[in-house]
Amino acid sequence: MSSTLTDPTLDRNFKGHKEGVTCVDFSCTMKQIVTSSMDSTIMIWNLKPQMRAYRFDGHTDAVLSVQFSPSGQLVASSSRDKSVRLWVPNMKADSTVFKAHTSTVRSVAFSGDGQTIVTASDDKTVKVWTVHRQKFLYSLNQHINWVRCAKFSPDDRLIVSCSDDKAIKLWDKKSRECIHSFYEHTGYATHVDFHPSGTCIAAASTDNTVKIWDIRSHKMLQHYQVHNGAVNSLSFHPAGNFLITASNDSTLKILDLIEGKLLYTLHGHQGPANCVAFSTTGDHFASGGSDKQVLVWKSNFDECEDLVSAQRAASSCMQIPAGPPTAYPPLNMQPSVKHSQATATSTRQDSHTAAHSRVSHPNRISELSTAHHTPAPSLSQNPPHGRVSLKASDVEAAPGLNSTLEHIIGQLEILTQKCCRLAMLMAAELISSQQGSENCSQKSHLVCSVMPMSNSL
User: Fold this and answer.
1) How far is the first Cα of the chain from the last one, in angstroms, to the nearest whole number?
2) Model confidence pTM above 0.90
3) How many C-alpha atoms does 452 have within 13 Å on its Cβ side?
4) For the residues 155-164, what does the mean pLDDT come to?
5) 182 within 8 A of 137, measured Cβ to Cβ
6) Is the pLDDT reported for residue 378 higher than 80?
7) What are phi and psi of 185, to 5 degrees?
8) If we measure between CA atoms, which residue out of 245, 294, 297, 300 comes closest to residue 24?
9) What pLDDT score was predicted for residue 1?
């Protein structure tokens, strides 16, 4: 596929919160967006024109986290009032509330099957609950400071959490044990999430950086220093090719994980950008800020949308094997768009501001740990008209070569199998012919020995 990468564009601007927006999420149907705010409310915004927004009151203090369930039939929210609420996202605003922690609940997230939720709190714990009847299941207790965020892995086997103790912990859901801790931020991580493949995690930090680790090798794969303020939130594109971040420097940054580069800087918020999230299809993303605004953007990653659809079709036919975390299947991730480095507001990024990556031209993010840790290539010169562009050959040579090599390897494997089968058939025929020759020689000898007797008669 070939198409031109179009700059992201601002699609909608929602105003309704009375204080800063703290979290944003899309419904699976792309019909609604939910946001939480310091004003103690959550709001459901309808993306269809001429439909009003719903404001849900219930929490008695700032709401810090909110998320749609995978089915879109419930919304979970967490608050400084130490509670978690489960809402039905309609005009009635029916909700169930339960006291989840002994202090501020900073994060709430659904599991992939929608049956459980995980919460993170200033009481230094991570807790797991059932959605039905909100039954407490277990607590994860090794953090020694406030826990900012906790998320399930895509296959629900792991939980990742980050804390003000500067640790990012990876937990095994079945054994309830911490299987690894990452300590590479000079500040503390404010937000953490899994790559769609489940093989990597990304963390946003108060030291202005974003880091990506391989959870199998425990090695840091990429390190981005592109913001001038603390990074508050991040979200992976569903195809896994891009990562978007929100920062106190009021900008959103879109990072190209294939090239290891900064792709876009987006200006829209007047003040810190607190949260950002891609839609389930990746064709839109939304951001919220201290300016009380909710901005909805069109990503314009046309080819990535095709890739997401293809991956979903493939995943519906693929079963993930059971086993320890080291058995995760690798993600076959190929670059699917041509890359340009510009901003949605025509603010050009110089080459020296590109992300500092520890890998050179990764073709699969799940295999980055095997690459040599060298800086990602950067552009040496900006062409006129405020846009940095790459030659098509520069961008497409690597993926084209990879696809060619993979095709050749596939053909060689097929040819090898055919050769083996042919050799076995030839061997079988040779053995059969040898046996036939021996039988014929025996018969000839018998005829020769019998013929003289008949002649003498």
Assistant:
1) 88
2) no
3) 4
4) 97
5) no
6) no
7) -95, 140
8) 294
9) 41
Look at residue 160 and tell me whether its pLDDT is greater than 50.
Answer: yes
Q: How many Å apart are CA 150 and CA 131, to the nearest integer?
A: 16
In the numeric block, the tokens 């690798």 are attached to 330
Q: Is the pLDDT of residue 4 over 60?
A: no
Contact 388, 256 (CB under 8 A): no
Residue 82's identity, in one-letter code, is K
Per-residue tokens: 431: 């053995």
Residues 419-434 as b/e (b if ≥16 CB within 10 A, e otherwise) read eeeeeeeeeeeeeeee
3-state secondary structure 334-371: CCCCCCEECCCCCCCCCHHHCCCECCCCCCCHHHHHHC
* 216, 221, 222, 223 alpha-carbon torsion, rounded to 10°: 90
The conformation of residue 368, written as its DSSP 8-state character, comes to G
Task: Give 315 or 255, the one with higher predicted confidence.
Answer: 255
Q: In terms of Cα–Cα distance, which of 174, 156, 68, 72 is closest to 112?
A: 156
Task: Give the residue among 253, 264, 260, 263 at the shortest CA–CA distance from 375.
Answer: 260
- Residues near 205 by beta carbon (within 8 Å), at least 6 away in sequence: 185, 186, 187, 188, 189, 190, 211, 230, 231
Helix (H) or strand (E) holding 421: helix 392-456
Number of residues written out for the chain: 457
260 in Cβ contact with 359 (< 8 Å): yes
Return the structure tokens found at 452. 């003289």
Characterize the bridge pairing of strands 158-163 and 168-172: antiparallel
Q: Are 86 and 71 in contact (CB under 8 A)?
A: no
CA distances from 147 to 103, 185, 203 (A): 11, 15, 13
Q: What does residue 169 show for φ and ψ, rounded to 5 degrees?
A: -110, 140
Task: Give the whole-angstrom CA distance, residue 47 versus residue 295.
Answer: 12
Please tell me the distance from the alpha carbon of residue 17 to that of residue 107, in angstroms, as a whole number: 20
What is the SS3 assignment for 403?
helix
Number of C-alpha atoms within 13 angstroms, CB side, residue 203?
32
Is residue 301 within 8 A of residue 242, CB to CB? The reply is yes
Here the tokens at position 320 are 């993930």
One-letter amino acid of 344? A
